[in-house]
Design a protein that fits this description.
This protein starts with a strand and ends in a 5-residue tail after the last helix. The chain is built from 10 helices and 16 strands. α1 packs across α7, α6 packs parallel to α8 and α8 crosses α10. β1, α1 and β2 form a beta-alpha-beta unit. It is of the alpha/beta class and 350 residues long. The model has no long low-confidence stretch (mean pLDDT 93).
């Protein structure tokens, strides 16, 4: 490539693995990262010194211009993630995820950028997953009622007849229905990049990550993923607390597989436009994951199912991985049990 690949958020969990994979191919890499206190205490030691690092906030116009200068491709990982603490986080999510994306896109346009963009999106844009009713076929259940959740009725009912539903894999053309602030900002990122593509002709690939786990995850914070929260509890000698009845189905995909999906999208001979699920293709329950992680800790406590629930959580969302295999050549390779054993002892980010 004629110029560096810009990896935004390249000091973070997923971004740093993308940086490693690109450097292994002998490519030139530039990292822009705000090193936010919620995610970092300092420059992480795992960030490869061969990558050029710009410490700065993409919400600042001059920083965005500096990051975009002369780059050959963009891998946009920078974002606030997770459900956050409460609704008071809303302006921070919109600023870091959407305003920063807009600043970056404007800087790229001003620099005459003609490469490709790979955007880190998320399965949260789907809201609830896909469901089928025996009588009414495919249906879209609405948000679950607090009264039902309090009573332990966690499965969303058919919106027509209120019967039980069968969860199905979610394809990329499923309706999008973000149900929390983070999800809304991720969908806005997709729309902003799609608008940029229409205006400039720059190809955009949106990778909708499912539940990513692996080394360098942040420790137990309101912004951490469930795997990290469980791992932190076990490391402290505490039983992981599993919400609802533990039957929520997700797709847990290793961070090295996610990095490989980014590399494929960045280096394919021809750009691959569109949105793609990045997932293992094998759904598991949250309790399955907690138990697999607990097995990796000798003498650890069994996960405790609490029946508690969180507003904004969805019941089931797991992916069809076929389109990514067909169009990107991506298939997840990391073994789940081996990945959980590695994750049990891997360093997490403070």
């Amino acid at each position: 490539m004629d110029g560096p690949i810009l990896v935004t958020g390249g000091a973070g969990f997923i971004g740093s693995h993308v940086v490693d994979a690109l450097l292994e191919l002998g490519l030139q890499v530039r990292v822009i990262d705000a090193l936010l206190p919620a995610a970092h205490r300092e420059r992480p030691g795992y960030l490869d010194p061969r990558a050029e690092l710009i410490e700065g906030d993409l919400r600042v116009e001059a920083v965005a211009r500096l990051a975009a200068d002369g780059v050959a491709a963009v891998c946009h990982q920078a974002a606030m993630v997770g459900l956050g603490a409460d609704i008071s986080d809303i302006a921070d999510y919109v600023g870091h995820n959407d305003l920063a994306t807009a600043r970056l896109l404007r800087a790229l346009a001003g620099d005459g950028f003609a490469g490709r963009i790979v955007l880190a999106s998320s399965m949260v844009v789907y809201g609830e997953g896909r469901y089928a009713c025996r009588e009414h076929g495919l249906v879209r259940p609405g948000p679950r009622e607090p009264e039902a959740l309090d009573a332990g009725r966690f499965e969303p009912p058919c919106p027509v007849c209120a019967r039980a539903l069968e969860p199905r894999t979610v394809p990329e053309d499923a309706p999008l229905d973000p149900r929390n602030v983070y999800a809304a900002t991720k969908l806005a990122q997709e729309h902003l990049c799609a608008s940029f593509a229409r205006e400039t002709g720059v190809p955009v690939t949106a990778l909708r990550y499912h539940n990513v786990y692996g080394p360098r995850m942040p420790r137990d914070t309101p912004y951490a993923g469930v795997a990290s929260i469980f791992r932190s509890a076990l490391a402290a000698g505490e039983a992981p607390s599993v919400f609802e009845d533990g039957g929520q189905r997700r797709d847990f995909v290793h961070v090295r597989d996610v990095a490989e999906a980014n590399v494929l999208a960045l280096t394919a001979p021809e750009p691959v436009r569109g949105a793609f699920n990045v997932a293992s293709g094998t759904p598991r329950t949250v309790l399955d994951m907690a138990q697999a992680l607990a097995r990796a800790f000798e003498g650890s406590l069994e996960p405790q199912v609490t029946g508690q629930w969180r507003g904004g959580d969805v019941r089931h969302v797991f992916a069809s991985a076929e389109l990514a295999a067909e169009r990107l050549g991506f298939r997840a390779l990391e073994d789940f049990e081996a990945g959980m054993r590695e994750f049990a002892s891997a360093p997490l980010r403070a």
